[in-house]
User: Which sequence fits this backbone?
């Protein structure tokens, strides 16, 4: 063992202390979302630097609250790039002030009522938090994911029985989906020539609505999800909501679209889903899947860390053997059910568009 006074050992101790205390970061983020700090700072695009006291008067008009503790949260999150910290000029005794970075702006509610804030809240509900101390059980016995061990049933069925959780899940997915779909529709033109399109796991139909607005050649959109999900979906011109089970059959179409569906299932389950897609497509039809795709090699980039963190989230909450996969792993699964063609389109740093041609 090296001398404890060496620089390497000092850095190692610092790194492990940071990792051990890392829970402070998502919980601080959850706290500022619950307090609606981003909207309070943004104020319709002004984004003027505000002190903790000034922020507090906007989020808690009653005058209660502890500005010092709010500042502690803001300082931590500033170190992770969520806020800009503006120190007093000349190093004086004035108040620190905070504005939003580009990361912080993702938490601002837009004109459609969407942001990444519900995604943050969805990840930190009590039922999900209870699962994290049991992550090691996914190694000991992967027959049950930690969420089920902690809560007595799988996440999706649990959500459906908890109306508030299901509603938050839908809002979270909309907040994440809409910005991605805007980026995808600017960079990917694979919907040209498609007349009938099915969105598998389409939830409220946001993705289909955006696709139909961009591609009027799509004459019929089918939003396909569980019956209890589509029962609450809003009416969208050109879209029919259809309830069903993707493990049994999928409506026929020229193309089938899905986003963040395959990653939560095992290899065998994915083969079943892909086989049902293959059976519902004509010759020349295609499956378009938007999924988190792992790099072949690990590194310390934000992208790799975000993808690997998402992979552990899937293992903990949804399926112990559900996982993020590499492009090659997806390609092999598709080939195994008969898809001969495969292309990947890198339109986003988190999601990759995977196109499987029949």
Assistant:
């Amino acid at each position: 063992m090296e001398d404890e006074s060496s620089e390497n050992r000092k850095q190692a101790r610092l790194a492990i202390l940071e990792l051990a205390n890392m829970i402070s970061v998502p919980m601080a983020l959850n706290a500022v979302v619950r307090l609606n700090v981003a909207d309070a700072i943004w104020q319709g695009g002004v984004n003027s630097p505000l002190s903790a006291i000034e922020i507090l008067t906007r989020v808690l008009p009653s005058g209660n609250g502890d500005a010092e503790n709010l500042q502690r949260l803001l300082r931590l999150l500033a170190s992770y790039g969520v806020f800009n910290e503006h120190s007093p000029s000349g190093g004086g005794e004035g108040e620190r002030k905070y504005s939003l970075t580009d990361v912080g702006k993702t938490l601002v509610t837009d004109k459609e009522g969407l942001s990444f804030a519900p995604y943050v809240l969805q990840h930190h509900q009590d039922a999900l938090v209870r699962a994290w101390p049991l992550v090691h059980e996914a190694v000991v016995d992967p027959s049950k994911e930690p969420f089920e061990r902690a809560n007595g049933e799988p996440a999706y069925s649990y959500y459906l029985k908890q109306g508030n959780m299901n509603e938050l899940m839908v809002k979270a997915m909309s907040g994440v989906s809409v910005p991605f779909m805007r980026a995808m529709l600017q960079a990917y033109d694979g919907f040209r020539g498609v007349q009938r399109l099915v969105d598998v796991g389409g939830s409220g139909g946001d993705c289909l609505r955006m696709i139909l607005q961009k591609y009027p050649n799509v004459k019929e959109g089918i939003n396909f999800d569980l019956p209890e999900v589509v029962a609450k979906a809003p009416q969208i011109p050109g879209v029919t909501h259809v309830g069903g089970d993707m493990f049994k059959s999928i409506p026929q179409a020229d193309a089938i679209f899905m986003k963040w569906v395959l990653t939560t299932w095992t290899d065998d389950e994915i083969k079943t889903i892909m086989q049902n897609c293959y059976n519902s497509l004509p010759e020349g039809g295609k499956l378009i899947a938007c999924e988190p795709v792992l790099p072949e090699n690990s590194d310390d980039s934000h992208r790799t860390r975000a993808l690997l963190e998402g992979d552990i989230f899937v293992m903990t909450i949804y399926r112990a053997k559900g996982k993020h996969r590499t492009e090659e792993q997806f390609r092999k699964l598709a080939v195994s059910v008969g898809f001969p063609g495969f292309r990947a389109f890198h339109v986003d740093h988190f999601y990759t568009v995977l196109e499987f041609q029949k």
Summary: The mean pLDDT is 94. The first strand starts at residue 50 and ends at 51.
